[in-house]
Amino acid sequence: MTTILGLPLPVLLGQLLLGLINGSFYALLSLGLAVIFGMLQVVNFVHGALYMLGAFAAYLLLHYAGIGYWPALVLAPLIVAALGVLIERLLLRRLHGLDPLYGLLLTFGLSLILEGLFRDAFGTSGQVYAPPTALAGGVNLGFMFMPVYRGWVVVASLVVCLATWIVIERTKFGAYLRAATENATLVQAFGVNVPVLLTLTYALGAGLAGLAGVLAAPVYQVSPLMGQHLIIVVFAVVVIGGMGSIMGAVAAGYLLGILEGFTKVFYPEASNIVVFVIMAVVLLIRPAGLFGKE
């Protein structure tokens, strides 16, 4: 049997796939964070709670409205995006032009409120959300037995990340967004409603978090604490990729997911801190991040 660094090739390939699955969630969540920070200069600490709300929206739609996974894949992100519109219009807009620290504190407080409300309503034990019948079962790849649903998560994440990058970097809407962050007054002089544009940007980032939550619901148990456990790692991913960099968020998400998977094979004790070690090294060498602007 072929071995690399003393380990069988099937083991390494299996960890590569597992890393891709974790990296898919890192990429989706960090993408939403990068969009919001890059366009609004808001360190959106409520992002983990929005991810949790996406999972709970799918769970509640199924158990109280009989709406299955596929419709929930559209409805739940829209519900979370609508909440994002309210957050931006009623709260964050009042902090526009102030030190970003105020936005961080506000969103951190919102995350605690949302998590507390759901913890009181559902407790801390996780709720089970079964994958759809069409994605049940698994596929024997020869070196591992991969659940079909987890393969779907990787594909869906790649498609959404690519589509978001195209919208931001290759469309007129994206050009307006990027211009509004550089000179909002000039863009408004051309007849563009900048406040609405910024609201839609926050809604897009919130919707991406909600979508990640729906995709995560069948993989992890739906719990009020699920976002709290993930958001710190995702912030580290965004810092490594470069704050506000769309491509950096996606690339760093997948790469760090894979690296974390390999670390579990070679040095399991370090798998929980490897992302933060890399973040520290990147900040020392390149403070703007791998893809960020100085």
Describe this structure in words.
The chain has one domain. It is 71% helix and 3% strand. It is mostly helical and 294 residues long.
At a glance:
The protein has one domain (16-224). Helices cover 71% and strands 3% of the residues.
| Helical run tally | 11
Main pleated sheet: 2 strands, antiparallel
Give me the side-by-side strand order of the main sheet.
Answer: 1-2
Gyration radius over CA: 19 Å
**Secondary-structure class:** mainly alpha
Order of helices and strands: EEHHHHEEHHHHHHH
List descriptors.
mainly alpha; globular; 294 residues; two-stranded antiparallel sheet; 11 helices; 71% helix
Detail the topology: elements first, then pairings.
Elements: E1 3-4, E2 7-8, H1 9-40, H2 47-65, H3 69-90, H4 100-122, E3 138-140, E4 145-147, H5 148-170, H6 172-182, H7 184-189, H8 194-216, H9 226-241, H10 246-266, H11 274-285
Helix pairs in contact: 1-5, 1-8, 1-9, 1-10, 2-3, 2-4, 2-8, 2-9, 3-8, 5-6, 9-10, 9-11
